[in-house]
């Protein structure tokens, strides 16, 4: 981790509070309280804190550095504002017993922070750790302010304690507001998840129930009867897949991951079977396949079948009906690569980045949820990634108008039985 | 009795197909759309006596669609289909707006169609 002293020395001195280490006593400093100290050294604090925030997460990838910094800065500034309020409140409290100070600005910043952290995939522990780091960054710098040349005069012990107490109170209040809004964001996304789940399950259920009623009509032709039976079949499959996805999703959420039963299996067979299944469900869609090379590896055949079904199903759902969907599988000594390609509306870069995240996380706004189509929880691709990563592989996606949307699954070639865990 | 025009909006293809088939019958004309936008585009020309729409649609929601058409024609009959409790709120959308649970029984829909028929063709 970069030490604060080092990062400070590399900066130009803002507000004249920095001093060249070689000539430490050429500038005199006014007595400075902690809140002024934070405002004056905010860049240095944010630098140190950012280093920490980035260690927290793979999630930080979904947030730009600018967004991370802006937020930290906002919270610090709000904390400073809150400390000022407390100062005046304390003076007032000495005359009469006042109520606990409230700071609307500070609360608003911390509230927004909590919501955003949920959307970026932080968990509560990480959210709290972030605040702890913020507190530590500020206090460490404050306690060393004289030795690193940030201030010359020192406050009395009592004044020092008073300052730190005010700061801690302000940070605690911001943390409480953040946690509060984080919990609300959890509730909202759970509600949205359930609403979409309701929609996803109820539509095919309603279709099945209506088709049942239709079948009761004596005047129905044989062809219509046949079509009705196939509709029931398709709808049940859809519901079954969704329920499986949900179970898998819950499993990964509970931390146990998706269980894999590896045996020697041939991806060639898995590709062919998955294509057959998807062809049967979508007789009007054209498919192309190119399968070559050695595709035998140690893997969970049923799970890889699920991966291909999800990817092909996704391609059918989003692809252009007029153009064919291709499945290209190649194997060589480096491993196995399976690509599923469709030509549909290209996916924008922001959506691409979040495509493997379930809707609960990915939809950062109602507009986003709409864009992703309200009739999809986005569990399918999340599960694809979980399974592929569980196999020690990777899955990536690229999308453009000319090349179409291509999902690429890479799997390692494994031949020895995995050592028992 | 004049033909009853029914406009149906549902994004799920299977459900749209089967309900369109179920709606069909003597004295009825049915058109179906997958999105609120498409339905709205055809609304004026088709002049449905009854608009049946799902609430959760990609893009424009069924509720938004209802608000727009009721603003243009306050007496428009609308059945809003929703998987969650919405019953108490639909009355605010218009005097002839009704809620249908999802999944609904076909009888519930037939009852509504009869209500619309009677309102439009008083004996």
Structure characterization notes:
The complex is a heterodimer of chains A (421) and B (123). Chain A is α+β, with helices and mostly antiparallel strands and 421 residues long. Chain A has 2 domains: 4-190, Globin-like (Orthogonal Bundle), CATH 1.10.490; 263-411, Histidine kinase-like ATPase, C-terminal domain (Heat Shock Protein 90), CATH 3.30.565. Chain A has 14 helices and 7 strands. In chain A, the strands form 2 sheets. Chain A has a 5-stranded mixed sheet with strand order 2-4-5-7-6. In chain A, β6 (394-400) and β7 form a beta hairpin. In chain A, α7 (157-215) packs antiparallel against α8. The longest helix of chain A has 59 residues, at 157-215. Chain A starts with a helix and ends in a 10-residue tail after the last strand. Mean pLDDT of chain A is 77; it is low at 1-30 and 360-375. The N and C termini of chain B lie close together (10 Å). Chain B is globular, with a radius of gyration of 13 Å. In chain B, α1 links the parallel β1 and β2 (28-33). Chain B has a single domain, classed as 3-Layer(aba) Sandwich (Rossmann fold), CATH 3.40.50.2300. Chain B has helices spanning 13-23, 36-46, 62-72, 87-90, 106-120; strands at residues 4-9, 28-33, 50-54, 77-82, 97-101. The A-B interface holds A 195-196, 198-199, 202-207, 209-211, 213-214, 224, 228, 231, 234-235, 238, 370, 373-375 and B 10-12, 14-15, 17-19, 21-22, 54, 56-59, 83-84, 102-104, 106.
